[in-house]
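Much of what follows relies on a compact textual record of a protein's fold. A complete example follows; check for yourself that the lines match position by position.
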Amino acid sequence: MQRVLIVEDSKVVQQILRHLAAQHLNVELDFAWSLKESKALLKSNRYTLALVDLTLPDAMDAEVVQLTLSQNVPTVVLTSKIDEYSRQQMLEMGVVDYVIKDNRDSYLYAIKLVSRLLRNQGCKALIADDSMISRAVMRQMLEKQLFTVFEAQDGEQALTMLKSDHEIKLLLTDYAMPTMDGFELVKAVRNFRGRDDLVIVGLSGAGTHGLSAKFIKYGANDFLMKPFMNEEFHCRVMQTMEQLNLIAEIKDYAHRDYLTGLYNRRYFCQHMDKSLKNGPISSCLALLDLDLFKEINDKYGHLGGDSVLTQVAELLNQSFGDCLVSRVGGEEFAVLLPGESIDEARAIFDNFRSRFADNIFYIEGEALNCTLSIGIAKCEYATLSEVMRHADQALYRAKAQGRNCAMAACTKSHQVTEKCTT
């Protein structure tokens, strides 16, 4: 679990930071008022990040900043005023960034900056540069921002690494490199990694006219001219990564059902179509439909029905958290179960059906039971419509058998023995 230390001696400011942190940070938080309290907390806890005031009553010369940095804790500084000497002092000490405390928005910026840095933890970044010194400088700056950093000595090596590791989300590439320059690397990478999947920042120490425009037109998200200031590097990287995360959040929002938080029908169909394009997949598809759901809506109203649907989604996530689980209709859900035979899949879903029937649902404190009918089909057909048709047919048979039933469709290779357990 990530843990953040916030050091601030003003009661009002600390209250503001507590309030904003509760809204924007889902991490363990410790607050300290002084250098003495900070020492005690650092002695007994390990911190992912620290947000600290530059001066405290018992630490007027940035001692608390020196303390957190000496414990290898990446540190963001809060300061009420800044001059060139203080700025240089902080940068030389190695802080990640500083925020000037001049209004409420600055505190919101500080908390959002902490949130952004925490999201970087575990995120992979690749530096492509033939200069060992340049790579070392950028590695140090990126590691302060909590990235996991890899290095490549030229474009070809970088391209090979990007092809083999799709978890790399940030590429910093120099223009002038042997075997493959930065332009050629960016063009090659964009053939298989889009702007919404990988951030690319071009770099160059040459003052060639139009270099930045060419980099961006070839597919880079941004450009930095060497030598660059630490603050400029930090801001460019943070802004481009924020754009990447915002795109990911928008896509996830578009792919989710608004009520249950499960994947929606659109995402489910897109995922299945993409998977089946390469031929039949070793998975089974189950369609699960709540029995007599209209009666629940009629008795408890649509808000009561919605409450049941959200509880159903929780049960599905608990039982099939490693599978693709979607809401594909009003009271119909789909689960893609990988790597099982049709008989094994039927046994798994029949066990879930039995547990589901015993589960107690609550609507405004009133308890009730629900049942499911389930149709299961092997994903051995060429198209999604064929797989869905076979699962639907099995589901209809389950309904016809009296509901609260799990049925498996016929496979291409053999007829499955249909037995409805209730």
Remarks:
- The two ends are 43 Å apart (CA to CA).
- The CA atoms of residues 311 and 402 lie 24 Å apart.
- The domain at 3-119 is CATH 3.40.50.2300 (Rossmann fold).
